[in-house]
Design a protein that fits this description.
CATH superfamily of chain A: NAD(P)-binding Rossmann-like Domain
Number of helices of chain A: 12
Helix content of chain A: 25-40%
Structural class of chain A: alpha/beta
Largest interface: A-B, 52 and 52 residues
Oligomer: homodimer
CATH class of chain A: Alpha Beta
CATH architecture of chain A: 3-Layer(aba) Sandwich
Number of domains of chain A: 1
Radius of gyration of chain A: 20 Å
Order of helices and strands of chain A: EHHEHEHHEEEHEEHEEHEEHEHHH
Distance between the termini of chain A: 46 Å
Strand order of the largest sheet of chain A: 3-4-7-11
Shape of chain A: globular
Number of strands of chain A: 13
Strand content of chain A: 15-25%
Chain lengths: 371, 371
């Protein structure tokens, strides 16, 4: 929608993986959304612009190849990933699905582009989680290493905290190999956790919104805390709550992708950008949600849970985030106003909250317990 | 055989992938070898020891799981990889086979071990090619990075020169993730190109030898040069020939694996070792083969070919290789005697050489030429 309203010809390809998994694992979004064809029609009625679509799985190379050959895109935004860390840690089938889906979609995309649109700019959604939580500053993709009196610029060493994050490292390695071998043009945006509901394009129609997930598997932390506050259950902070991440508003994800598409890297370049707006630890997020809730008359509490994940709960964290600002990104901050908007959206749909979905069901040690 | 003759109970699992690809792509080894069941029988008649075997594909998880659950191995040596770089660069089908085979076998092995033999020591064959040719010293798996006044010990940044090498980087990331999450015990041996024909176990029977591949896709450089010298065709040095790698004798691969198995890392450790004996560039290898050939009365010549690969032809190369020496490895050097043994073995089978198999058929830029 962001590209369409700027006058671009846009095509969306979806295999409904997220929806199918949500059904199978009983983790519906807070508000049910119409399917893609209906959403395209609504968009047309709201904006006057047409978005074409195809329902299919880009793990099927021939399907994808046909689309790329016909549509000849200038820019491809690659979102076709299983992108939940807890899902990837649930069991062998979920792990396998994540690994296979994520590597196959990227591989097929690379080959479809090489064959039919070699000049296309591939924008891949990465994650800051690829870097993990190292004890040195995180740079944007590359690091200058001085070692035993010699120097080189190398891919920043990556170490993800879940199988999902590890598959994103695989993607980076795969794209970087094909970029330097065949001159593909790629931007990899390494994003932190996203919060928020509304973008410029979706505020005019509730059926155009993004799915608001709040369960333990799909829901990211701000969403979960907001739902817990509204539902009158304590905000579940995992462990000490000192886990620090860089967060961003959903409006800024759209802003970033448009900026990146309109400012292509050089042909044959693999450009890697980090994106987040503010760093918080989990306890700070909980405090902010409690404070915003109180301003709406909701008294929220915090409960520390045993951490279901394997992660450092207190650690150094400093990540560079300069390149998007240089392209002109105007950051949206996590203000009390933004949190109040989220709380109000959830309150409006309060009767739909299923409280049983929020407590963590997936433990990182799960596989061994069942061994 | 090396483990069997030391009194261990040994089982071999093979899906004949290497043989099937050799047939399909018409690249037979110099000497045809009997299949696995017959080789096990010959071994028994020669040594008195039994080696059990199963023919099947460990991409089939249930097949692998059954074997691990029944056999309950203490040590697993993971060779189940498509391990030819040129093969992985041939076209989309070969690339896909390499990517899928290599990631799936490693993933299945990890889960079979987690479920049925969580204390087993996984020995994975890696490759020095994962590191590429950086401008700083290559360390054994990990590097201490000092950056902006802070320090961390991180996975050495990897950048492989082919899709095959990239899949080995995937393996490393996958194993390292499951090691630190579930406490698996892994040794990753990063080997350079291997040369040689005979080991202590195979010298007593020609049908126990390893396949001697000399074609452009399976054959490594020393094998190819030896065959070219015997066949009276010039030794094909790719480009300037300044490409430097660390080489090792096939006897030392066996020595290393036995040493590594007999000296387990700590439970829950991912130990990464580099292995090569001597560094040479390709021109130096060609000179050595010419000299050894001359001592047998064969006059060999060198021809510089346009490089079919994308790689630096002159570069810094210094890789650490201390840990195997600390375990007691006694290196075998690439002496004139060793090369003469190889030349004599090939001469004995000279009539079987197919000269059409040696010139490079796969160019790294192949995919784009056909786009």
């Amino acid at each position: 929608m962001a590209f369409s309203r700027r006058g671009n010809e846009v095509m969306v390809v979806d295999n409904y993986l997220h929806r199918r998994l949500a059904l199978k694992h009983k983790m519906p979004p807070l508000v049910a959304l119409p399917e893609l064809p209906e959403r395209c029609q609504i968009w047309k009625s709201v904006s006057g612009y047409e978005i074409s679509h195809a329902i299919g799985d880009i793990q099927d190379f021939e399907f994808l190849e046909g689309i790329v050959a016909d549509f000849k895109p200038d820019t491809i935004i690659h979102y076709a990933q299983q992108r939940s860390a807890p899902f990837s840690m649930k069991g062998i089938e979920e792990a396998r699905l994540t690994l296979m889906n994520n590597i196959t979609t990227t591989f097929n995309l690379i080959w479809a582009v090489m064959r039919h649109a070699p000049k296309a700019h591939i924008i891949k959604l990465g994650t800051l989680g690829e870097y993990g939580t190292p004890n040195i500053d995180i740079e944007e993709g590359w690091i200058d290493i001085e070692h035993k009196g010699r120097k080189d610029r190398m891919l920043y060493p990556r170490q993800g905290g879940s199988l999902y994050h590890t598959t994103k490292i695989h993607d980076t390695d795969l794209l970087w190999f094909y970029v330097r071998t065949y001159g593909l043009t790629v931007t990899d945006i390494m994003q932190g956790p996203v919060y928020g509901v509304v973008t410029d394009e979706t505020e005019n129609h509730p059926d155009l919104l993004t799915a608001f997930d709040y369960d333990d598997i799909y829901g990211t932390v701000v969403n979960r805390f907001v739902v817990q506050a509204v539902a009158g259950i304590p905000l579940t902070v995992y462990g000490k709550g000192g886990q620090t991440r860089g967060f961003l508003n959903i409006r800024d994800t759209m802003q970033a992708i448009v900026l990146v598409a309109e400012n292509r890297p050089k042909t044959g370049e693999m450009r890697i950008l980090n994106q987040f707006t503010e760093q918080f630890n989990i306890s700070e997020i909980a405090d902010k949600v409690c404070k915003a809730a109180l301003s709406l008359g909701i008294e929220a509490k915090v409960a520390h849970l045993e951490n279901p994940r394997l992660e450092l709960e207190e650690h150094y964290y400093k990540a560079a985030v300069n390149k998007l600002a240089e392209l002109g990104l105007k950051p949206t901050m996590l203000t009390e106003k933004v949190l109040r908007e989220m709380l109000e959206y959830v309150k409006e749909h309060q009767h739909k909250i299923d409280k049983t979905l929020i407590m963590p069901r997936v433990r990182w040690s799960h596989a061994l317990q069942h061994a």
